[in-house]
Amino acid sequence: MAHSPPNLTAKFDIGMPVRHRVYGFRGVVFDVDPEFDNTEEWYESIPEDVRPRKNQPFYHLLAETPDKSPYIAYVSEQNLVPDEDTNPIHHPAIAEYFDVRADGSFVARAKMN
Asked: Which of 34, 55, 56, 107 is 20 to 30 A away from residue 8, measured at CA?
């Protein structure tokens, strides 16, 4: 079976609020992989009927559950939509990665190495 080439253009940018289209959790993009770059064990743990293609961007998110519990999520582009919710996303690491503007948007902080 032929595989389609990877989509190397990420639809969502660093700092963009997104929502999982199936599970509804929200998050802020803090990194993007052009295609799947996690363990095979992680990939195989996803039920086969909902397992995403590997040849698409995958996003690292500072995410929160509906009860505001923070965690890091790794999500395929096909499972994300822009988050239209105007309520803030609560994650303790947001300040490490972003400055938050008065309008609630996120601006990536410059990394000091």
From this structure: 107
- Which amino acid appears at position 106 of this protein? F
Q: Is residue 23 assigned to a domain?
A: yes
Quote the CA–CA distance of 19 and 83 in Å, as a whole number.
Answer: 5
Q: Is residue 45 part of a domain?
A: yes
β-bridge pairing 26-33 and 17-20? antiparallel
**Pair 10, 57: CB distance under 8 Å:** yes
DSSP state of 78: G
pTM of the model: 0.87
Number of domains in the chain: 1
The whole-angstrom distance between residue 111's C-alpha and the CA centroid of its chain comes to 19
Q: Considering only residues 42 and 9, tell me which one the structure prediction assigns the higher pLDDT.
A: 42
28 Cβ neighbours under 8 A, 6+ residues apart: 15, 16, 17, 18, 61, 62, 89, 91, 94, 97, 98, 106
